[in-house]
Amino acid sequence: MSGADAFAETWWGNAWVTALEEGALDAARLARGRAYAGRGYVDAITVTPGLVLAYVHGSRPRPYRVQVRVRTLSDGDWDRFLDAAAERPGHIAALLDKEMPKSLAECGVALLPGPGELEPHCSCPDSGHPCKHAAALCYQTARLLDEDPFVLLLLRGRGERELLDALSRRNAARAARAAQEQEPAPLPGVRARDVIARRALPTLPAPLPPPAHPEQPPTYPGSPGGPDPFALDQLATDAAARAHALLTTSRDPVAELTLWQDAVRLAAARPGSGLTAATRALYSSLASATGRTPADLARAVAAWRQGGFDALSVLEEPWDPPAGRFDRARPLLLAADLPAFRPWRNHLTHPRGHAQLRLGHNGLWYAYESEPGHDDWWPRGTPDLDPVGALTGLGAPGDL
To answer: CA-CA distance, 359 to 324, in Å (whole number)?
Structure first.
């Protein structure tokens, strides 16, 4: 039994799923947990050192409080990990690209959990190990690890900012030692006196090659009444990425976005799905600057994460599609044993009012969910050219 293909794409995400499944005592509870995670039953996840916490919806109206504990690393373990990361520049570049090199994970420090190391606890009455609610949280956590390996490092005891600062100090010490041991190579250029002495200007040296990755911004200390260090860090990191793209491709990938679209992009770049205090402050600030509410921003972020600019347009701009793909969708849904969806402009809505499909200008179908009887639609799942395929993440046809 393996849920790795469904819930993890990276090797470290698969290792997390393997630890869950090899330590489980009941395959049936794992299967229910995978289904719960796939249907969005896991609410926003909070990750702190040694703990993953979320509320998971079950058969009762009140969601269950679920937590999974893992062992944090000792100071000696962290020293060995940081030494291994600083030893090879490719390790740091990979982490900044949200990748976890196997050579770094196998440096002698147990970063990934083994079978039986995950310690789930749930407020439900089921005594299984794990119960289906805890299994759902573990599967959903694998997706967070896919998106950002720093989530795994935070679980082991240290956050991204703290680790990058420590790596920066180690690199500075290594560079200082190297500078003492070797004379730096002279930079290409022309001496000023040579330029003045000649009538014909010399040929300019070839430009230096662009760096392989944007550099990490410096650490911004917090001070009473001063700017928010997290906001400065995020803006500096984003500016560096845009400058690098402009340098290497001669175009700014976000130059045409409106203020609102750019605010949604910045909020969506925040890793993970848990609303920490820093994330809530960011949402509040961006929403205020654009004249929207934090709830508007949260819905727009969900759309952006579903499919970027195109998915945000689908959320905010109903339109009248021409005959063709839209008209063929309803027979396809009926052929999949789904009821007759109600059409309105580019929307197709389930007769019970809890599931909806929206056709984008790019020809993709985008799935939405709402509580029955409430016109409160939230983006769900992955866009698909097939309307039935777009509903896959919302459950089986019999559930719809």
So the answer is: 12
Give the domain ranges of the chain. 4-160, 245-306, 325-394
| 338-377 pLDDT, tens digit each | 999 999 999 999 998 899 999 999 999 999 999 888 889 9
> How far apart (Å, rounded) are the C-alpha atoms in residues 89 and 239?
22
CA distances from 141 to 51, 52, 120 (A): 11, 8, 12
- Alpha carbons 104 and 96: distance in angstroms, whole number: 14
H or E element at residue 114: none
How far, in Å, CA of 308 to CA of 304, rounded? 4
Q: What's the pLDDT tens digit per position in 250-309?
A: 888 788 889 999 889 888 887 655 566 667 777 888 889 999 999 999 999 999 999 999
Whose CA is closest to 341, among 349, 332, 331, 329?
Answer: 349
Strand ranges in the chain using DSSP code E only, listed in sequence order = 46-48, 51-56, 64-69, 119-122, 342-344, 347-349, 355-359, 365-369, 378-384
d(CA 224, CA 242): 30
How far the first Cα of the chain sits from its last, in Å, is 26
Q: Which residues contact 165 (CB under 8 A, 6 or more apart)?
A: 219
What is residue 47's three-state secondary structure?
A: strand
Burial of 227 (0-12, 13-18, 19+ CB in 10 A): exposed
Portion of the chain with pLDDT greater than 70, in percent: 90
| Overall pTM surpassing 0.70 (yes/no) | no
Q: What does the alpha-carbon distance between residue 47 and residue 144 come to, in Å, rounded to a whole number? A: 10
Reduce the DSSP state of residue 323 to 3 states and report it: coil
